[in-house]
Amino acid sequence: MRRTLSLLLAMLLTCATLVAPARAAAAREVTYDRYSLMVDGRRVVLQAAEFHYFRLPSPRLWQDVLEKFKAAGFNAVSLYFSWAYHSPKPGVYDFAGVRDVDRLLRMASEAGLYVIARPGPYINAESSGGGLPAWVKTVPGRARSSESGYQAAYREWLHRINPIIARHQVTEGGPVILYNAENEYQVNTDAAYMQDIQDQARADGIDVPITTNDCCDGGSWSSTWATGPGAVQIPGIDDYPQSFECANPGLWGPWGEGLTERLRDDIPVFAAEYQAGAIDVGDAGYDKCRELTGPAFMKYFYKNNLVTTGATMFSYYMGYGGTNWGWLAQPNDVYTSYDYGAPITEARQLTPKYDEFKRQGYFLQAVAPLAKTDPVATPPASGNPALTTVARANPDTGTEFVLVKHTDRAATSTDTATLDWAGHRVPVQVKGRDAHVLVGEYDLGGQRLVLSTSEIMTHAAIGGRDVAVLYGTAGSPGATILRYGSEPRVTVLEGRVSSSYSGGELRLDYSHEGLARVLVTGGGRRPLLLLIGTDEEAARFWRADTATDPVLVRGTDLVRSASVNGDTVRLVADVAGDTTPVAAGNAASPAVEVFAPPAAHRLRIGTRDVRVTRTPSGSLLGSARAPEPAPMPELTSWRTRPEAPEAQPRFDDSRWTRADRTTTTSPHPPKTLPVLYADDYGCHYGNVWYRGHFTATGAETTIDLNAITGKRGNYLVWLNGRYLGSAAGGVQADSGDQWTPPNPDPGPGHFAIPAGLLKPGADNVIAVLVANMGHNDDWIADDLRFKQPRGLVGAAIGGTPISWRIQGAAGADPVRGGLNNGGLYGERTGWHLPTYPDKSWKNATPAAPLTPGVTWYRTSFKLDLPQGQDVPIGLRFGGDPSPAYRVLIFLNGWNVGQYGGDIGPQKEFSLPAGLLAERGTNTLALAVTAEEPVPAGPGPISLFAYGNVRVD
After folding, report:
1. What is the C-alpha to C-alpha distance for residues 714 and 436, in angstroms, rounded to an integer?
2. What average pLDDT score do residues 188-204 get?
3. In this structure, what DSSP letter does residue 385 have?
4. pTM for the complete prediction?
């Protein structure tokens, strides 16, 4: 994972030619040199996007995300494998259902994506414990080290996950092309640990290159990145130049230039994680994070890194963020949504960031010479010192790549200069916080491109002619020069383009406005159709390979696949809204246009034939069927029941676990004995109940408690059934990068005992409900941070002895896993499950007044979403959340989120298909914990659709 904000320094990223993995292919060989990876000797520019399957517990939707990656031009997906997600306790591993990573890897292969496999053992990912199971906190020996206790634990994990990865390697005909050992481990010095991870991988059959990702340029365990214990074959670097200050989206590269460093001369430059979003540190909302890391940031930093460093391996974090459902999140800086401001939203919607990834990704796919480049002399940009250039060239083909950017990366002005290049003077214009990668001396299919000041999005040989999509900033001047043996014929089919021919070179001049179409024939070369548009017009194109020629599609919302069978083009595509055809080239047209071989004159989208006409460009133009409306039912007929019988003095806790330990593996000593740490008694996630019995003298006046819950946690206290109040849980080193002295009084709560409440000489009962918010990461590989306790750490009533019992979750849910539930009474007895009989519950609304404690609400609703449509559904809380209560949200038994004023800014929660019955009855359950009397609970509560597309 990318890591803690203050240490990340700057470096990284690049791109180049993409070679997709063959589907169900034979075994192949993976090699590399200083330029790039190679598969069977063919150079590959690896362009990956990060995806966390564990943040989308719906395998049917994994395919959707992977297909969207592929459609954006990515040729790889980076996958963390979360140890905690698969192992609820030592020796127990689950790889079924939503944990079926065999299925995930098959899906990646079917989508045509390589895989960077990242099994840790530590992954960070802003997940609870950084992906280390909570039970590892009770294992002797420092985590992320070669100490024997931890070593036995992580070896067990690796020997479970490695064989699954191994059978899906490229060398076995699968998609796994790289294996990433550990994660940002350079803060530690245990080279034996790093070496052992690699040795275990090799022993388990991993034979693709092993990588690791360095954050912060501090690799002291292998400072030379050369040979020796701990060093991997291909180290890479993580870089997040925008930091995570989403509340200030105008910020521009505060953490450096974002240039990937070459770590060794014998390996490619590897941008192991490059920023493609941000965690929402200040609760500004993920739309602000998406703005902070939006297309302007992407254009400048990604393109700058591409040409300046020549990297050919990179992975963007994140491509799709997903949801911190259940108790998946770490307690710092994240809440239920892990949208991350990524190009694909939490609800799987495409954004302008996705468009920019597609423009750049298609370029990398199409222009093969990018896979091998060296720095070369730079064509100067004259007439305006605000602009500067950097250049690289392929030493074999002579293809040149010229980056034009502002001298000041933070500039906001639009500047124009003249580029002196290949004997020509051509105008270039660059907006502030933008950059252009221009290509010259390039075999563009059957053409010879001398240069162009338009950027290349893609090009393909289709039906005996070359079709190329070029683009530039709206309103900027453009020039494209092509070389011919004799003067060709130029036909401007649409737009305003002037042409001239001299000395064997054809020059086209134009302004980037709408979409211009230029047909060039003759001149000793095959025909060329140039489609020259703005950034926005380029984003409307989709490229899909077929068994014969590629096809280009314009106007659908997504193209998942295409085929050409005789006279028919078949598309699997997403369509939203009205698609009535109008004249080709009209930017407002939602028409579907297909560039295919001339023999094809029919179009089928999904199972529907589309009536088409042939345009002057030779394309097929038609319209697709729009999706049907998807009305949302109202949420009514709520039923309610209060819980927390645990707070009552006569509650039977005899089957609860005695909390009587006097020692602990945690490096944090308890404030009082016995040790009450939840993890020491197997209570790892969510809410935990404590009941303390004591014989009162009658002189007791206060109950003094301490709890460590992680950020946003709290605890509620009762004495003999009387509610006494609540307190905020404490934190220890949750947000700092280095260890600070422990707080001697964490999460204090001092509760006065009301007169007459105690029963002197008899049994009295303290009941404490602690909301633990996940486990610290292990960013600095320091047990003081990772093994920080959760739950009560101190309890005293003067000097009166207390006998304690503890109860957490009833056990790991066999379907949803160990991270889904905590220890609320309703969770332990199934109130969150759709099968629970609630007819005896009272009718009520969640917006009714609340009393302190836990109150449950349940309702059901029916959906009948149209077949063949993708309608992501969300749950919306109206009004402003109160810090006096927090809500656990259960959909058909799945804990899909937490809502409340102290939890974060989130008011909308994704209800993913698979968890949600799109055509059937669903059960919604809310567990509302109030810290004080509240005049109105959460509400109004409603369902809504994030989008609606027909998937044909």
Report:
1. 51
2. 93
3. T
4. 0.95
